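Please go through the protein record below and explain what the tokens say about the fold. Record follows.
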Amino acid sequence: NADNKNGAAGGGRGEPLGAKIRACTEGNGGHAAFASILWSAPASGISFYEALQQVPVDVLLLFGGDDPWCTEAVGKRMHVTLASRRDGAACRFVTLKNVGHCPNHEAPTAVAQVLMPWLDADDSEERRVVPLDSVSQIQEPWGEVVIREVSIEESESLGLVDRVVSSMVG
């Protein structure tokens, strides 16, 4: 159903996810709390992207292509940051077109299609090359999801606006 595709919690019952998130900001201090998440300096003393560089494990970034909060530009910057680590850990970035902020809820079949080969891989070397988008389209109950892997070269070519937007995270 269209409500579920757009992020309604509970299988389409109740308010859409976006309305629930917005409602959290409308109470006493809600705007200030939400703004502090976005704009405050991290308590750790390092930025989000500096923290990413310290992640010592293989990382699969799986983003909803229609996510209004964690945009593809943020994913691309995360991809470049993770790929620049010197520890040899693998990093791949896949987007799911027609999916929003909660891919595992909105498109579980597509998520499994991408996630299972990654999890089945034995090591970092295999995770770098295992096909993650061997099936490029998946039919979910509400409609079609297009699976697309983003190359590191594409991620490295962020335009000015995307660099500014992605810098707001961390």
